[in-house]
Amino acid sequence: MRSSKNLWFFLFLSILFTGVSAQELDDIFGSIEQEEIIPLLPDKMLFTQRILWGENGLLRQAKLAPLTPMQRSREIELRRKMLVVHQALGYVTLASMVAQGIIGGKLYNGDTSLKDAHETMAAVVNIGYFTGAGLSLFAPPPLINRTEKGLSSARAHKWLASIHFSAMVATNLLAEEAGDNKTVRNFHRIAAYTAFGSFATATLVLTF
Q1: Which has the minimum average pLDDT: 13-22, 80-89, 150-159?
Q2: Is 60 exceeded by the pLDDT of residue 23?
Q3: pLDDT at 136 over 90
Q4: Distance of alpha carbon 67 from alpha carbon 54, whole angstroms
Q5: Is position 197 within any domain?
Q6: Residues 86 and 12 in one domain
Q7: Is residue 143 within 8 Å of residue 195, measured between CB atoms?
Q8: How does residue 22 score in pLDDT terms, banded at 50, 70 and 90?
């Protein structure tokens, strides 16, 4: 704090005795404000965000995204676009889950002719789901992470995300082992329904 005051005093003397131009003064004050008042990164970030976009993230180290005010403004715009696509993919994935659930129900009831269709729809769901998850997890961080007390739609969305992500991973792992094993098939079905229920709820809490 003392060094900051000394710097301002030095600038004041410079203006009086050396005559700094208005543009130079704006540049100096702007750099001070950016360094001391406006943080370029939030205090808290997701682990996946910190890997890429943190102060020592991979993109910073590779000089592909230098940590500057101009670059951060571009990152905020990129974040907005990524989250819009994430939301759109969420609706497409939810519709695909419904279709897969209908096909899966008939398959469990003995209609083996739908096995190929079920696997194809599972691939569609997985592509949509994990692409959408990646867009959210690896999007650039916001300028400020707002902390809200109590339950909010954003907080509920995050909690449900941890549930449906785990359930989606379990669904895929159990699908590989199901085969003719009735017990594993039942656990696979439970995981799939858990993924669908939590994913649908997570989508709806942000929509309404």
Answers
A1: 13-22
A2: no
A3: yes
A4: 9
A5: yes
A6: no
A7: no
A8: low
Are 128 and 199 part of one and the same domain? yes
C-alpha span between 38 and 26 (Å, rounded): 16
CA distance 143 to 75: 10
Confirm if 50 and 92 have CB atoms less than 8 A apart.
no
Contact status, residue 100 vs residue 118, Cβ threshold 8 Å: yes
Helix-helix angle 2-17:22-36, to 10 degrees? 180
The pLDDT of residue 38 is 66
pLDDT tens for residues 181-196? 788 888 988 999 999 9
Answer yes or no: are the C-beta atoms of 82 and 139 closer than 8 Å: yes
How far apart are the C-alpha atoms of 194 and 103, rounded to whole Å?
17
Burial (CB count within 10 angstroms: exposed 0-12, middle 13-18, buried 19+), residue 156: middle
Q: Which domain holds residue 18?
A: 1-38
> DSSP letters along 159-179, please?
HHHHHHHHHHHHHHHHHHHHT
User: Do both 32 and 127 map to the same domain?
Assistant: no
Q: Cβ neighbours of residue 173 under 8 Å, at least 6 residues apart? A: none
Residue pair 122/55 in contact by the 8 Å Cβ criterion: no
pTM for the whole structure: 0.77
- φ/ψ of residue 57, rounded to 5: -65, 165
Number of structural domains the chain divides into: 2
